[in-house]
Amino acid sequence: MRDAILEIMSENDAFTYQDEPITMAKQRLEYYHDELLKLYTSEVIKDPEQLYSLGDVLNIIDTIKEKL
């Protein structure tokens, strides 16, 4: 699973995480999490379903970080 995560991140970021320390991938995921958390806690999203979905995405990112 770890290799698949790194491969997907590498494709999406145009950066090869497989050749770097795993901490770089975790830092990138932390950045994504922090940026999405700003949106989640802002007043921008009013629709409860969208908030639930974004909360799920934040949880998925946390789970992925744990798997790395």
What report would you give on this structure?
This protein is about 75% helix and about 0% strand. The chain has helices spanning about 1-15, 20-40, 50-65. By secondary structure, the protein is mainly α.
Provide the low-confidence segments as ranges.
none
From the helix content, strand content and strand pairing, which structural class follows? Answer: mainly alpha
Largest sheet: none
The percentage helix is: over 70%
Shape: elongated
Write the layout of secondary structure elements.
Elements: H1 2-13, H2 22-41, H3 48-67
Helix pairs in contact: 2-3
Keyphrases for this structure?
elongated; 0% strand; mainly alpha; 68 residues
Concise summary:
The protein has helices at 2-13, 22-41, 48-67. It has 68 residues and is mostly helical.
